[in-house]
Amino acid sequence: MPHRLLPRLVLRRHRRSVLSPRSAACGCAFVTTFFCPHCFAEIEPTSLVCPLCGIDIVQWRAHPYKKRLVHALGHPLADVRMISIEALGRLGDPDAAMPLVQCALARPVDVTQGLAIVSALATLRRDESWADAVRLLRDHPARAVARAATELLPCS
Ligand SMILES: [Zn+2]
Fold this sequence. Notes:
Blueprint: H1 6-12, E1 16-19, E2 30-35, E3 42-43, H2 57-60, H3 65-72, H4 78-91, H5 97-106, H6 111-123, H7 128-137, H8 143-152
Helix pairs in contact: 3-4, 4-6, 5-6, 5-7, 6-8
Residues 36, 38-39, 41, 50, 52-53, 55 line the site of zinc ion.
């Protein structure tokens, strides 16, 4: 998938379908929940400015793609974080290594996400900041994640 298509994909994933309280009894209808791309508060789909953090949502979307992907690593929805992790891996920029590792360490019980982050790290260009980040991940509380990070950068 070309990179220029990904921002739209990520933005779409900021929406979440949940059963409507009104229609939950029959289970036949869904409503869509929209999130502020900056503070991740639930907002109305027509909002141009977030009522909580005050950010101009249109202007926020004009920020560089990589910056928005790194920011989305803090999204409360795991599927949004996973899209960002995979997209950052495809970009290959070693500057993403430390934010990815911080994302993994912030959710120590999420082994699936931690392993996805190790896979993304494996595709980044390697420099000293990349190595510093992977060294931190070798101490991840989940043994599977720590082991995968150690395979990526063995202790010397
Ligand atoms: Zn906001």
